[in-house]
Amino acid sequence: MKRAGFCIAGLMVVFGCGASQSKSAVRAAIEAYLRQRPNLVLSNMTFDVQEVKFHGDTAEAEIKFESKESPDLAVKVHYVLQKSGDHWVVRSSSPAGGMGGPHSSTARESQTRPQEGGSTAGEPEPQSCH
Question: What is the pLDDT of residue 96?
Answer without folding.
Answer: 86
